[in-house]
UniProtKB/TrEMBL annotation:
Keywords: Aminotransferase, Pyridoxal phosphate, Transferase. Transmembrane segments: none annotated. SUPFAM superfamilies: PLP-dependent transferases. This is Aminotransferase class I/II-fold pyridoxal phosphate-dependent enzyme. Belongs to the DegT/DnrJ/EryC1 family. GO terms for molecular function: transaminase activity. Signal peptide: none annotated. It comes from the Bacteria. It comes from Pontiella agarivorans.
Length: 384
């Protein structure tokens, strides 16, 4: 058994990044400023996006985009239940109704087939989630949204570096990335909204900073009008320059991070191949590049003779950390009580919600760490 605990994920921060953060702290300008502007330009260029706005979190970015699209009472928003709760919480906080789409059993992603039957006169937005580093099959969903005149927001929190049919996620449409510490690149907390809709992006830029026409850096440093005007009441979701400079360093290393993630996952696939109790997700059938944000497996609870939560607890006893991405949102207390959601509504989501487990994966891991995880799994399954 491992003597030290292997966390599910640890951020990789280089000495250069630490020095760059210290330089910003000494510079006299630590909040949104020149480093944010550089980070936005660099991230947009990396994705091939027309424009990008840095925000304090992906959740804050989602809030601004939903607000910019004027989502509110009487509107329905289609989203998977297999997602992080933040999106669904925001839909509710804005007074709209979440409508949950089921997912493909083996990729955990929505498709035109699962979304289309849910469309009504009230549907305002569809929010597909690129899962674990793989892309959603966007072309059929884009066609569907265009046919019905419905807006699309891509949750790209797992998809920094992911490609769909030869193009990076972020190039087309409106995509929201997260730089939380477990994501493929980090700014401690932070996010990015990329969009090919410049009008929408201008609204997000204003909404993330009180709804003003210009931000504090523009006002004070560039010497624009001292009293900016509120265009529409907004929020306080700007990214600091401390975070942005860290993001610039991380972005330079993103491809190397993702290559290392891919190597580790290849090793997992090889080593787990002879364990029928453990079923990794499957690769999407369309052309893509996987960013391997998460390595998710499903526990065959009958073959294994134990439930997923017990499996995770047993791995922890073997000094192996795991994650759960995610517990189905629709079966959480608020959603069952408020919207009458119930078991049986979303069979594929619920099947996975009871079985998924994310194994340790981050670029700083050694090959031997993967071997330790597999050995611990064999011990837990009494195959050691
Ligand atoms: C992490 C995550 C978010 C939220 O990102 P924050 O930057 O923490 O707000 C949203 N959606 C998904 C699918 C995520 O994994």
């Amino acid at each position: 058994m491992r003597t030290s605990f292997l966390p599910f994920s640890t951020p990789s921060v280089s000495d250069e990044e630490i020095f760059a953060v210290a330089d910003v702290l000494r510079s006299g300008w630590i909040t949104t400023g020149p480093n944010c502007a550089k980070f936005e330009a660099a991230f947009a260029s990396y994705c091939g996006a027309e424009g990008a706005v840095a925000v304090a979190s992906a959740t804050g970015g989602m809030h601004c985009v939903l607000q910019a699209l004027e989502v509110g009472a009487g509107d329905e928003v289609i989203t998977p239940s297999m997602t992080w709760v933040s999106t669904v919480n925001l839909i509710c906080l804005l007074g709209a109704t979440p409508v949950f789409a089921d997912i493909d059993r083996d990729t955990l992603m929505v498709s035109r087939a699962t979304v289309e039957p849910l469309i009504t006169e009230k549907t305002k937005v569809i929010i597909p989630v690129h899962y674990a580093g793989a892309p959603v099959d966007m072309d059929p969903i884009r066609e569907l949204a265009t046919e019905h005149g419905i807006a699309l927001i891509e949750d790209a929190a797992h998809a920094a570096g992911t490609e769909y049919k030869g193009e990076r996620i972020g190039k087309k449409g409106t995509c929201i990335f997260s730089f939380h510490p477990i994501k493929n690149m980090t700014t401690a907390e932070g996010g990015m909204v990329c969009s090919d809709n410049s009008e929408l992006l201008d609204k997000v830029k204003s909404l993330k900073f009180h709804g003003l026409g210009v931000d504090a850096f523009d006002r004070q440093i560039k010497g624009r009008t001292p009293q900016a005007q509120v265009i529409q009441p907004g929020y306080k979701y700007n990214l600091t320059d401390i975070s942005a400079v860290l993001g610039l360093g991380q972005l330079e290393r993103l491809d190397a991070f993702n290559t290392r993630r891919t190597e580790l996952v290849t090793r997992y696939h090889e080593k787990l191949a002879d364990l029928p109790e453990i079923q990794p997700l499957k690769f999407p059938a369309y052309p893509h590049t996987h960013a391997w944000h998460l390595f998710i497996v499903r526990l065959d609870i009958y073959k294994a003779g134990l439930e997923r939560d017990a499996f995770m607890a047993a791995l922890k006893e073997q000094n192996i950390g795991t994650g759960l991405h995610f517990r189905a949102v629709h079966l959480q207390k608020y959603y069952t009580e408020t919207f009458g959601c119930h078991p049986g509504m979303l069979p594929e989501t619920e099947w996975n919600s009871d079985r998924i487990c994310s194994l340790p994966l981050c670029p700083s891991m050694q090959d031997s760490d993967v071997d330790d995880v597999v050995a611990a799994i064999k011990t837990v399954l009494k195959k050691g």
